[in-house]
């Protein structure tokens, strides 16, 4: 009997705390795909949990479509991500209440439901402006500190463009506007119209859009900005390039600017880029704007109907409270941690730049996710794509953008 008891205890320990549990995590940060899968495999081995990571976004499909297909098939993942009010409302009925989790007390950017419950763990703190190669700008005689308005960017782009051959550039800016890369335009770029230059938390332009209206002067400036980015971009990358094409052009010194965020630091490291880099504000206004866009990009949520909810909760807690989890978040994935207890700091130049902007309080909100996801992808993205490919001019872009916003009126 004692031998049997000993055997059962040994078997229990060998199976780990969760007894061969399986969890599936669906996320949309393609740039950390390799790092996340490596960490998940190591964590899974240590905890005897079979962890499957499914990465969407970039060139790997649309996360919303993946989740909808999983839901229809009755195969929702245990952990997935939401990016704001629209996706929260879509999945609200199946989200677990995480209010009692240990990590909640370590962050100020947890996702809360309208009734105050914590339902989402912030993946990181992220930001973007116009990423620049400081070495190229110095050689071209352009001061990034002065890139705070539309006029300043027009002058700088023209100056750099005239020196492309000498500087070894293929384009001034690496920009993407294909429908497959629609999140660059329909999510990130449109936020320039919605938020640039406004006090942090000011949702007035986004709320105006939800009433079906646009700010005509603001939109005119914004259209000038979009036109400028498209004009000085590599046209092949702009209209048909992949994520790797767009980021790769900047990482290899073939473009002076990049329209992406600090999440590309791992890409720069992989390309062994040695140039100094940072962020300048978007130039979507004729007035001076002196800040970049900073927020939690997405939040991990847990399916309340998961058969392995304890393992899923432990996976999220271990990201915050274990040395291996902290190392993955900061050193391996290159992300800015959203938790006060994590003392590690990212080494990537763009992440450092975002931290510097945030420390100065020079930040603008992310309001793009106030607009419905289907509206952004199905209504806005094609308009940018038509503008980029020369099918419409700036006046038509403004007209179609205005008409699209009008459909949001409740």
Notes on the structure:
With about 400 residues, this protein is of the alpha/beta class. It has 2 domains: about 15-125 and about 295-340, D-Maltodextrin-Binding Protein, domain 2; about 130-290 and about 360-405, 3-Layer(aba) Sandwich (D-Maltodextrin-Binding Protein, domain 2), CATH 3.40.190.10. About 45% of the residues lie in helices and about 15% in strands. It has helices at about 1-15, 35-45, 65-70, 85-90, 135-140, 150-160, 165, 180-195, 205-210, 215-230, 235-240, 245-250, 265-270, 310-320, 325-330, 350-360, 375-390, 395-405, and strands at about 20-25, 50-55, 80, 110, 120, 125-130, 130-135, 170-175, 255-260, 275-280, 290-295, 300, 365. The radius of gyration is 22 Å and the shape is globular.
Which residues sit in consecutive blocks of at least 5 with pLDDT less than 50? 1-16
Output the radius of gyration.
22 Å
Total individual domains: 2
Quickly give the CATH architecture of the largest domain: 3-Layer(aba) Sandwich
Total strands: the figure is 13
β-strand percent reads 5-15%
CATH C-level class of the largest domain: Alpha Beta
Structural class: alpha/beta
Do you know the CATH topology of the largest domain? Answer: D-Maltodextrin-Binding Protein, domain 2
Largest pleated sheet: 6 strands, mixed
Cα(first) to Cα(last) distance is: 71 Å
Helix content: 40-55%
Count of runs of 4 or more consecutive helical residues:
18
Strand order of the largest sheet: 2-1-3-12-5-4
Give the CA-based shape. globular
């Amino acid at each position: 009997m004692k031998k049997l008891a000993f055997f059962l205890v040994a078997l229990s320990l060998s199976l780990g705390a969760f007894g061969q549990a399986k969890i599936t995590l669906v996320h949309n940060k393609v740039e950390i795909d390799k790092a996340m899968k490596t960490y998940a495999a190591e964590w899974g081995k240590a905890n005897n949990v079979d962890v499957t990571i499914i990465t969407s976004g970039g060139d790997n499909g649309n996360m919303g479509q993946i989740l909808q297909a999983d839901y229809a098939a009755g195969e929702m993942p245990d952990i997935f991500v939401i990016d704001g009010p629209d996706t929260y409302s879509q999945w609200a009925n199946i989200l677990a209440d995480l209010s009692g989790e240990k990590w909640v007390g370590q962050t100020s950017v947890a996702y809360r439901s309208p009734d105050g419950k914590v339902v989402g763990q912030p993946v990181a703190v992220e930001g973007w402006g116009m990423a620049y190669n400081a070495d190229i700008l110095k050689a071209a005689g352009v001061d990034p500190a002065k890139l705070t308005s539309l006029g300043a960017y027009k002058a700088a782009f023209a100056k750099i463009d005239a020196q492309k051959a000498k500087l070894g550039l293929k384009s001034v800016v690496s920009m993407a506007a294909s429908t497959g890369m629609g999140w660059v335009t329909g999510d990130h770029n449109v936020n320039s119209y919605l938020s640039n230059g406004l006090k942090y938390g000011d949702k007035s332009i986004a709320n105006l859009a939800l009433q079906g209206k646009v700010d005509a002067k603001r939109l005119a400036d914004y259209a000038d900005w979009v036109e400028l980015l498209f004009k000085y971009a590599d046209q092949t990358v702009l209209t048909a390039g992949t994520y790797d094409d767009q980021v790769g052009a900047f990482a290899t010194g073939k473009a002076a600017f990049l329209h992406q965020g600090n999440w590309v630091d791992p890409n720069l490291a992989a390309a062994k880029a040695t140039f100094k880099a940072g962020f300048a504000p978007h130039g979507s206004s004729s007035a001076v704007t002196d800040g970049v866009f900073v927020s939690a990009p997405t939040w991990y949520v847990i399916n309340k109907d998961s058969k392995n909810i304890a393992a899923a909760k432990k996976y999220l807690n271990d990201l915050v409270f274990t040395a291996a989890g902290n190392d993955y978040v900061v050193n391996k994935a290159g992300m800015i941690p959203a938790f006060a207890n994590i003392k590690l700091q990212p080494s990537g130049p763009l992440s450092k730049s975002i931290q510097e902007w945030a420390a100065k309080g020079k930040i603008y909100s992310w309001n793009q996710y106030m607009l419905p996801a289907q509206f952004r992808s199905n209504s806005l993205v094609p308009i940018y794509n038509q503008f980029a490919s020369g099918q419409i001019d700036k006046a038509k872009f403004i007209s179609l953008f205005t008409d699209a916003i009008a459909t949001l009126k409740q």
